[in-house]
Amino acid sequence: MSASPSEEPTPSPLRQATPADLATIAKIHRQAFFDAMPHMPVLHTPEEDLAFYTTQVFPKCEIWLAEIEGTIAGFIAHRAGWIDHLYLRPEHQRRGLGSVLLAKAQASHELLRLWAFQCNIRAQRFYEKHGFQRETETDGSGNDERQPDILYRWQRTAE
Question: What's the whole-model pTM score?
């Protein structure tokens, strides 16, 4: 039985990831990715996912975590001009955590781009709600999954 919105645990403030968090981050990525897009090809093992986050993502990106009661609920990995990853455990989606993580990246950059798969309608709605605009759509020939995708762009506006 799930808690009603008034009984849901309050998230802790965001914190930056450490190497000790990478195994959990890789698991959340895999869980959220295939929950949103179960038809996608499985191209990597869980061990390869962890190696990717350890050798590619962690050294190049800032990774911020959203936690609930000491458990990592989701994360964002961003770098100059790009959001590389934003994933939440499925049971923590649609509660505002993604918006909090995205706002962290938007506060750090004037311009951000990201890729989303065309089949991931929830991601499209989320990013468009937060001011991202479609820049390019592809047939997927440039990504490992060979699935059509969308390049999104967001730019901070003068206030």
Answer: 0.89
